[in-house]
Amino acid sequence: MKKFLVFALVLATAFSLFAAGSKEAAADASDGKVKVALIIENTIDDKGWCQAMHDGIIEAQNLLPDTIEYSYNEKTSTVDAGSIIRQYVAEGYDLIIAHGAQFKNPVLEVAEEYPSVSFAFGTSDEIGPANVFTYMPESEETGYLSGIIAGMLTKNNIVGLVGPVDGGDAARYNRGFVLGVQKVNPSAKILVAHTGSFSDFVKAGEVATSQIKSGADVLTGSSQQAIGALRSTAEDPNALWLGQDLAQLTTEEGKAKCVAASSYNYAAVVVGMVEKIQEGVLGGEVIPMNFNNDGFVFEYNDALSSVVTDDIRAAVDEALEAFKAAPGVLSNWKEVDYNTL
Questions:
Q1: What does the DSSP assignment read for 77-145?
Q2: DSSP-derived secondary structure for 138-160
Q3: pLDDT at 25
Q4: Which of 86, 111, 174, 224 is the most exposed place for a label (fewest CB within 10 A)?
Q5: What angle do CA 108, 268, 303 make, to 5 degrees?
């Protein structure tokens, strides 16, 4: 009889603790706060890929006042990503964004262990588990705008493209660039090279220097490694640059060399994920980014407005109008074959 009473007392205590914990969790959820963590390979001020997401989260905080609590971890290797993700889970974060396709495996591994926590990684167009969001910039559109400008600006009829790897949104941007150049200047020679890294500034600079020596006078590139290429472009008096992040317009080199730039508007992605989490949707969706859904922004460099002719502006405006009217305008981007250039 005593054993039964002891067991009943333990069971009652455990139930009370569980109920208290549930009430506390419910209270946390009801306060409207969503704790968001960002994991990046580089830094929040890299003037490229990582800064774009950081800036997007900051803007999302402004759009959703008193809703998002934010923390980030910089210079994260894929080897360390799993343990850092688990640390954020232990600290009670609701949405953990590992910004880079290289983080796919650690995200999926941890997500399986914690089905009540939301995770996200990109770029990817695959539908993940019920608690994993993915996002895919359809950056053939931004690349196309850069290609139009490059094809109409080049005096040597040679343009350069410095890519990181031939995959994900980088591949889409690169092929969109090719399509843009070919649309306005079919006879232009397009030099394409990949560094094999998203963050090797030195290698990107070397590739850009090589392309400039080969006659390229307008260059572009994507991901954070592109800053190295921009810096090399700035060292040549006759070369110009087209950016894949608005932050490149404000760097010392960019002010002098970056004619125009596009950026990913990650604020829209983050706001969308936060609102879905508040509605009880933890993942299982791909979030596209394009001009049609305000996932991209585009700007010219006012300091270099003299090099942008009315014809260039008209061609860019025409393309922008088509992109904003409907997504998927450049569905043929996959057909671009570098071997035929």
A1: -HHHHHHHHHHHHHTT-SEEEEESGGGHHHHHHHHHH-TTSEEEEES--S---TTEEEEEE-THHHHHH
A2: -THHHHHHHHHHHHHH-SSSEEE
A3: 35
A4: 86
A5: 120
Cis peptide before 123 (omega within 30 of 0): yes
Identify the pLDDT of residue 123.
Answer: 87
Tens-digit pLDDT profile for residues 312-337: 999 999 999 999 999 999 999 999 99
DSSP three-state, residue 315? helix
Number of residues written out for the chain: 341
The DSSP code for 197 is: -
**Confidence at residue 31, expressed as pLDDT on a 0 to 100 scale:** 66
Contacts (Cβ under 8 Å, ≥6 apart) of 143: 172, 173, 174, 175, 176, 177, 178, 179, 180, 220, 222, 244
Residue of 52, 67, 86 whose CA lies nearest to 273: 67
Which strands make up the sheet holding 95-99, listed edge to edge? Answer: 68-73, 34-39, 95-99, 118-122, 132-137, 286-289
- Average pLDDT score, the chain: 91
> How far is the C-alpha of 313 from the C-alpha of 84, rounded, in Å?
46
Q: Is residue 289 classed as helix, strand or coil in its secondary structure? A: strand
pLDDT at 19 over 80: no
Q: How many helices (H) and strands (E) does the chain have?
A: 11, 12
DSSP 325-336: H-S-TTGGGGG-
The predicted pLDDT at position 13 comes to 38
Rounded (5°) CA angle 175-145-242? 90
Give me the amino acid identity at 141: E
Can you spell out the DSSP letters for 31-61? Answer: TT-EEEEEE-SS-TTSSSHHHHHHHHHHHHH
d(CA 335, CA 175): 8
Chain mean position to CA 289? 10
What does 61-85 look like in DSSP terms, one character per residue? HHHSTTTEEEEEE-S--HHHHHHHH
Per-residue pLDDT tens over the stretch 83-135: 999 999 999 999 999 999 999 999 999 999 999 999 999 989 899 999 999 99
- What's the predicted TM-score (pTM) here? 0.82
